[in-house]
Amino acid sequence: MKELWEITETLEKMDDEVLAVTLLTEFNDKTRVHHLLLQNTDPDLDHEEWKRRCRVAQREVDGIVKRILTYQR
């Protein structure tokens, strides 16, 4: 939860509002994909493939979080 607060605060303090919106949109898109995978409502998705996709999605979330937090003041 602390990390989400840091992300929000960082984006709010950015001088470049267009970049902030772009990063927020990307963050929302990546976390949405990860969340949907965690729910795993696809009965045709086998467990190993599900785990692989979750790992990839988590890396993508981690990547956008890292990019956002590099803009901290």
Comma- or semicolon-separated keywords:
single chain; 73 residues; mainly alpha; 3 helices; 0% strand; elongated
Shape: elongated
Q: Number of DSSP helices? A: 3
List the helices and strands in order. Answer: HHH
Major sheet size, sense and barrel closure: none
Mean pLDDT over all positions:
94
Low-confidence stretches: none
End-to-end separation: 20 Å
Q: Beta fraction of the residues?
A: under 5%
Count up the domains.
1
List how many beta strands DSSP finds: 0
Structural class of the helix and strand makeup? Answer: mainly alpha
- Please bin the fraction of helical residues: over 70%
Radius of gyration: 14 Å
Report on this model:
By secondary structure, the chain is an all-alpha fold. The protein has one domain (2-69). It is built from 3 helices and no strands. The chain has helices spanning 2-13, 17-39, 47-69. It is elongated, with a radius of gyration of 14 Å. The model has no long low-confidence stretch (mean pLDDT 94).
Secondary-structure topology with pairs:
Blueprint: H1 2-13, H2 17-39, H3 47-69
Provide a concise account of the structure shown.
This protein is mainly α and 73 residues long. It contains three helices and no strands.
